[in-house]
């Protein structure tokens, strides 16, 4: 009887608390790509990966023009499902990403990269230079497929500011400069959103970029 009373009291407490939580802190609230990150951001992004209709609806609600691409394949064990080409400032332009990765990038750009650029440079970000999103291959030195094999990853190499300056991972990562501080904030902020974030401190293969993905292996290095 006592256990039942305690369970009912706990349920009542949760029912009272949830509507009063900030949206980003409510595990049951739909993800808002225009809102701040919270402790459940990664879990909500993974939920979007399992619900493409909700994923594309979230992108559209955030003002991102993302059209679903037909299912296809980049090669053996490299199925491309629920992908889109993300518009906006990229070089190369319109990278192919899974919908969930497109959603994660939208949060990352709005909640991490742009505020960090304003903080360190007094300037916004005009363009993100990347080394690719799709490569039908295994992880380097391994036998399992890379997240790049299904366009569930992006390798971010540099960022061009709206005032024309460029920040590159290869040149600026270890510098004691505003650019170096910006990149460290960009790396740490990515760890709040993506499943795996691998940078120059991981190994020499990542000396010139941040690898960002939404796989199921958690890493922040």
Radius of gyration based on Cα positions? 19 Å
Specify the biggest β-sheet. Answer: 7 strands, mixed
- Strand content is 15-25%
SSE topology string: HHHEEEEEHEEEHHEEE
Please state the oligomeric state of the protein chains shown.
single chain
Helical stretch tally = 6
Structural class: alpha+beta
Would you count the extended β strands for me?
Answer: 11
Task: Write down the overall geometry.
Answer: globular
Average residue-wise pLDDT: 91
Poorly predicted segments: 3-14
What number of structural domains do the residues give?
Answer: 1
Proportion of residues in helical segments:
25-40%
Q: Distance between the terminal alpha carbons, to the nearest Å?
A: 49 Å
Features:
221 residues; alpha+beta; 6 helices; 11 strands; 34% helix; globular
Please explain how this structure is put together.
The radius of gyration is 19 Å and the shape is globular. The protein has 6 helices and 11 strands. Helix content is 34%, strand content 18%. The protein has one domain. The protein is α+β, with helices and mostly antiparallel strands. The strands form 3 sheets. Strands 4, 6, 7, 8, 9, 10 and 11 form a 7-stranded mixed sheet that branches. The protein starts with a helix and ends with a strand. Helix 3 (52-61) runs parallel beside helix 4 (99-121). Residues 54-221 form the Extensin-like C-terminal domain. It comes from Roseomonas alba.
Question: What secondary-structure arrangement, pairings included, does this model have?
Answer:
Elements: H1 2-17, H2 41-49, H3 52-61, E1 72-73, E2 79-80, E3 83-85, E4 90-91, E5 96-98, H4 99-121, E6 125-130, E7 153-161, E8 166-168, H5 169-172, H6 178-190, E9 196-198, E10 210-213, E11 219-220
Parallel strand pairs: 4-6, 9-11
Antiparallel strand pairs: 1-2, 3-5, 6-7, 7-8, 7-10, 9-10
